[in-house]
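Retro notes, item 3 of 5
We never archived the inputs for the adenosine monophosphate complex last cycle. Fixing that now. Sequence and ligand:
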Amino acid sequence: MSSFQDFGLSRRVQQAVDGMGFEEPSPIQAACIPLVLDGRDVIGQAQTGTGKTAAFGIPIVEMVAPEARVQALVLTPTRELAIQVAGEFRKIGKFKRVRTLPIYGGQSIGHQIRALQQGVHVVIGTPGRVLDHIRRGTLRFNDLKMVVLDEADEMLDMGFIEDIETILQETPADRQTMLFSATFTPEIRRLALRYMRNPEHVTVNRGEITVPLTDQVFYKVLERNKLESLCRVIDSEEVQLGIIFCRTKRGVDELVEALLSRGYLVDGLHGDLSQAQRDRVMRKFRNNEIELLVATDVAARGLDVENVTHVVNYDIPQDPESYVHRIGRTGRAGKRGLAITLVTPREFKLLKQIERETKTQIVGREVPSLEDVAERQAEIWRNRLVETIQSGGLGHYRAILGNIVDDYDPIDIACAALKLASAGELEAEQKDEYDFGDTGATPGMVRFFVNIGRTAHIGPADLVRAISEEAGVPGQVVGKIDIFDRFTFVEIEEESAPFVYEALRKSRINGARVNMEPAKPRSRVR
Ligand code: AMP
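Structure as it came back at the time:
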C-alpha cells in the first residue's frame, strides 16, 4: 500500500493534499504520480471517480516553476470538466500559489484574455476555445512543458480530433504528454503513437476479485440531496450495526456532524485520529453505543468487527477492489449482510464498471419517498405512545395536566404533547428534490427544453440513447419528443426527471453541448 509520503512531494504540495483529506493514493494515482514526476509520458486508463484528476494534477503542480507562465495545458471535452479540473488544481496548488485558469466557450473571451495576461501556470480548456486563443496570440506555449488530454475518448467522440492535433502541433516538441481515457480505442492508440514518446500504459491492476456473501443494492441519488437520501435509506432499513464509507477524511467529519445533528448514533474513524481516539470509537461501536460508523477506506481496513448488518457506500468506491473490500465488512460468518451504494448520475458508469468487473449484479432500488419515511416515523411514534400507555406510571403527568382537561379537547392536548416530545421531527419539511413547476407536459411527465435540434444532427433515437446512457434510466421513461431545427422538447416521466436533468444538463449529445431546462408551459407547440 503506497502513501502520499512515498512520492517525496514538496512541503507545500503535501500540505495541500493533506488538507484535501486524501488518506492514501487511489490505485491510478499510485501508478501515475511517480511516472509523471519522472518525466514520463503516461497513458492512464481511468474514468471519473477513480481520482484521475489528482493523478496528473499533483505531479504537475509539484513540477511547475514559480514564474507565472503557462507551463501546463489540460484539454478537456466539456466546460464543466474544465471547471472541475481547475477546481481540483486550485486545491492542490493552494499553498504553492499555482495559478490556474479554465478557458471555455460561452464565457467572455475578453475576461479570459485579461486573466491570461496577468499570468497563469496551468491552463485548462476545451479544444475549441484553446485554439481560438492560440490563433489570437493570447495563449503562448513558449514555456509549456506538460500537456494532458483528459477524457480523450470523449473528446474524440465529440469530433475534436482535428483541434487537438492542431493544438499539439503548436506545443513544444519536447513536452511531456499525458493521456487519460476510460477506453482505449484504435483512434486513441493512433493519437498516442503520433504525439507521445514511449508512453507508459497504466491500467489499474485488477487481480482476482471474489465477492463475499452479501446482497448488493444501489440507489440512484442526486448530488444535491445525497445526505437526505442517505437518511431516508437508513431510516427504511433495520440497521443494527452499519459502516458508512466516505472518500475523504473531511467527508467523514462532515457526514458525522450532519448525522449527529439529525439524531443518529454515529461516530467517525479516519487516519487523523490518535490511537486512543480510535480505540474509543471502536469500543463504542463494539458495545453498540453507536449504530453507525463513518469511515474512510484506510481506517476501515484494519477493522475487525462481527455482526455488521449494513455497509453503505456514501461515496462510491474508486475501483472494483475497494468496492469488494468495503462490502466484505458485512455478511461474514455465514450471515448475509446488505451492501448499499449511493450513486449520482455522473457516477453511474463507474457503478456499471464495478458490476462488470466483480461479475455481480447490483440491484437498483428507489430512494424511499418522503411520504414513506414520514409514515414509518409516524408508526414508530404511535408504537411508542402505546408502549408508554401500557407501561403505566402516568399518574405524575396526570397531576401536571391539572385542569386544562376541562378547557381543552383531550385530543388537542395529546397532539400538543406529541409535538413537544417529537421536537418537530414529525413535521419534516415536505420538500422533495426538484420542483419543475408546470412545464406544459402530459400529466405524470416533465417537459424539458433542450438547446439542440436537427441542425446538430440529432434524432429521437440519439436523444433516447443519450438520456438512458447518461442518466442510467430505461429508454421507456422518455415520452414525447419534438425536434425543431435549433431546439427540442422532450418529455420525461416525473420520477426520472430529476436524474435526467442532473445528468444531461451538463453533457454533450453528438458532440453538441447540451443545455437542458424545464420547459415553460406556454412554449407548448400544438
Ligand atoms: P476524479 O476521478 O478525478 O473525478 O476524482 C473523484 C473524486 O475523488 C474527487 O472528488 C477527488 O477530489 C477525490 N479523490 C481524488 N483522489 C483521492 C484520494 N486519493 N483519496 C480520496 N479522494 C480522492
